[in-house]
Amino acid sequence: MVVTCIAQVTDQFFLVTEFDGVEIRIHISAQLAAILKALGVPSCE
Known about the structure:
Layout (H helix, E strand, L loop, with lengths): L1 E8 L2 E8 L2 E7 L1 H9 L7
Antiparallel strand pairs: 1-2, 2-3
């Protein structure tokens, strides 16, 4: 499982990953999203 990007929907954040060809979105906090972005995880376009 590889995290591909961070999606923002209004004021909520999700880790977006793909597993066996199925897109999976995992809800995360804004603080965790900021930390992951600082570590180099890109935002979804």
